[in-house]
Amino acid sequence: MVVTQARLKEMLSYDPLTGVFLWRVDRGGKKAGETAGCKKRTYIAISVDGCIYRAHHLAWFYMTGEWPDPFVDHRDLNKHNNAWVNLREATKSQNQANIGLIKSNVSGFKGVSRYRAGEAYGKSWQASISKDGKSRHLGHFATKEEAHAAYVVAAQNLFGEFARAA
């Protein structure tokens, strides 16, 4: 059963400036006025009436009365910062555009990878970007910086305010 906005506001208060939820009622081992939620993987999770919700989804619902469709993006990448100004509704592609550099990246630049086949031609780096589950090849380049510049332009064109270069 999905919680209603009225029930959510009966159980919890949300401070849009800090992004923190507080219990309005005593429940379990928590007293009214105590911080709600716990870190679950990378997000803060809050249990309401036996269902577990991500705090950023509850914040969206608390403030708008509507469940996000389908994602809520953290502008600053901090998944614990649920301040209202840090949250925005997003598509899956927009949400993925606003991620930092992944650990397995060896170039040090988002969207850039090694292109060994082109080393004989002086082009040893390639750039690519994905949107809506489709990868787009942006070209081969002599330097990783040139490849990254191509990625940055493509990201701005495809994702606008959601584009994150690094």
Can you characterise this structure?
This protein is α+β, with helices and mostly antiparallel strands. It contains 4 helices and 10 strands, in the order αβββββαββαβββα. The strands form 4 sheets. Strands 3-4-5 form a 3-stranded antiparallel beta sheet. Strand 1 and strand 2 form a beta hairpin. The radius of gyration is 21 Å and the shape is elongated. The mean pLDDT is 93.
Number of strands: 10
Strand content: 25-35%
Task: Please outline the major beta sheet.
Answer: 3 strands, antiparallel
Q: Distance between the terminal alpha carbons, to the nearest Å?
A: 39 Å
Structural class computed from helices and strand pairing: alpha+beta
List the strand order in the largest sheet.
3-4-5
Number of helices: 4
Low-confidence stretches: none
Percentage of helical residues?
10-25%
Q: What would the principal axes of the Cα set say about the shape?
A: elongated
Order of helices and strands: HEEEEEHEEHEEEH
Q: Write down the overall mean pLDDT.
A: 93
As a whole number of angstroms, the C-alpha radius of gyration is 21 Å
